[in-house]
Write a structure and sequence with these properties.
- The chain is α/β, with parallel strands linked by helices.
- It folds into 2 domains: 142 residues, NAD(P)-binding Rossmann-like Domain (Rossmann fold, 3-Layer(aba) Sandwich); 175 residues, Dihydrodipicolinate Reductase, domain 2.
- The protein contains 11 helices and 12 strands.
- A 6-stranded parallel β-sheet has the order 3-2-1-4-5-6, sandwiched between helices. Strands 8-9-10-7-11-12 form a 6-stranded mixed β-sheet, covered by helices on one side.
- Strand 1, helix 1 and strand 2 form a beta-alpha-beta unit.
- The chain is globular, with a radius of gyration of 20 Å.
- It binds 1,4-dihydronicotinamide adenine dinucleotide.
- 1,4-dihydronicotinamide adenine dinucleotide (NAI) binds next to loops.
- Keywords: Oxidoreductase.
């Protein structure tokens, strides 16, 4: 391998374009050499915007690009497991967006493929772990500043979506727990050092987006999880926020309470309506976690150049999928 990691990005949609721009310009030690999408318009964008990278219609074609070291998957989640396996078997290092797969069995297939090629790096994109605020929260927990963790309350809000993006996106996403809540699931498991869970309850609704019924998804959901050791965690997730994007977490310990990401209003009263934001939002997910996406990419490139280790393991990605599937099952049976 050359000293520079030569990367091909696959998927040039909402997030793939952002990753591609980062990899093309902002990651020392990496260079973007190829991009793939089945959509001609997206390939034309890549040719214009990414310094003339080679473009391909899909992963299989991109894997034939000469001198390619790593593949960066930002494709629909339903494709992840098979694409991870195809890229690993082609001898490439792989970055895969979250979640690793839509069920634990598919995660296991991808993990088995990676285990057969230990010299190749395979990493899943739980970028919130790289966010300086969540990373500091983890550091404070590990040094004992909060004491025993009693409860964690997570909020993930996507802006209300009048254009119907989520209705088109939902069928391949696994639903709101696997797609959106998965970030908080991974963070909570990380904060709790990967402890297992013992009980899950969940409810959900689609008052704003009834069309999600076609794929069994909801636009707003809440899950409550009991973890071994006694910590309980609440996960609230919605696609109907009037204040824009928000990710927040309250961690209640026996010695102290920590807030991550909450905009605290001057008065304890706010009215929030689209176009009349009375609480400063956090921009979109890319604005809120822009630095985390860069740090995540740098961590992957460093792992490839140094021969490992990766900062987060595939076993964690599997367990995040398993808990999200348990939430979805709890929602289904009520
Ligand atoms: P999107 O629907 O906007 O983009 C998907 C892209 O994949 C499109 O470029 C599409 O043309 C391409 N594609 C579809 N089928 C393909 C195939 N067979 N081969 C190659 N490319 C194909 O979706 P979005 O929002 O960009 O999400 C993509 C992935 O990124 C998902 O797994 C999602 O969970 C993840 N994601 C992660 C976020 C984070 O916070 N880390 C935020 C948003 C998405």
């Amino acid at each position: 391998m050359s000293d520079t990691v030569r990367i091909g990005v696959v998927g040039l949609g909402r997030l793939g374009r952002r990753h591609a721009e980062n990899l093309a310009r902002r990651i020392a030690g990496a260079t973007l050499v190829a991009a793939a999408s089945p959509v001609a318009e997206e390939r034309a964008w890549a040719e214009r915007a990414l310094n003339g990278v080679a473009t391909y219609a899909g992963l299989t074609e991109l894997l034939r690009h000469p001198d390619l070291d790593a593949v960066w998957l930002v494709t629909p989640t339903s494709l992840h497991a098979d694409q991870v396996i195809e890229a690993v078997e082609a001898g490439k290092h792989v970055f895969c967006e979250k979640p690793l797969a839509l069920d634990p069995a598919d995660c296991d297939r991808a993990i088995a493929a990676a285990a057969g090629r230990p010299e190749q790096i395979v990493m899943v994109g739980f970028m919130r772990r790289f966010d300086p605020a969540y990373a500091e929260a983890k550091r404070l927990i590990d040094e004992g500043a909060l004491g025993d963790i009693v409860a964690i309350r997570c909020v993930s809000e996507d802006p209300i979506d009048p254009d119907g993006f989520f209705v088109r996106f939902a069928p391949t996403s696994g639903g709101v727990f696997l797609d959106c809540c998965i970030h908080d699931i991974d963070l909570v498991r990380w904060m709790l050092d990967g402890v297992g869970f013992s009980a899950v309850a969940a409810v959900g609704s689609r008052i704003v987006t009834p069309a999600l019924a076609d794929c069994g998804d909801v636009d707003t959901a809440s899950a409550c999880v009991a973890f071994a050791g006694g910590t309980i965690a609440d996960f609230y997730v919605t696609r109907t926020s009037h204040r824009g994007y928000e990710a927040a977490m309250t961690i209640v310990g026996s010695k102290a309470t920590l807030e991550v990401g909450r905009a605290i209003p001057k008065l304890p009263l706010t009215l929030e309506q689209a176009g009349r934001r009375s609480v400063a939002g956090q921009g979109d997910f890319f604005e809120r976690f822009g630095e985390a996406f860069l740090l995540e990419a740098r961590a992957f490139v460093a792992a490839v150049r140094n021969g490992g280790p990766t900062p987060l393991g595939l076993g964690d990605a599997r367990e995040a999928t398993r808990l999200a599937c348990a939430m979805r099952a709890a929602l289904k049976v009520g």
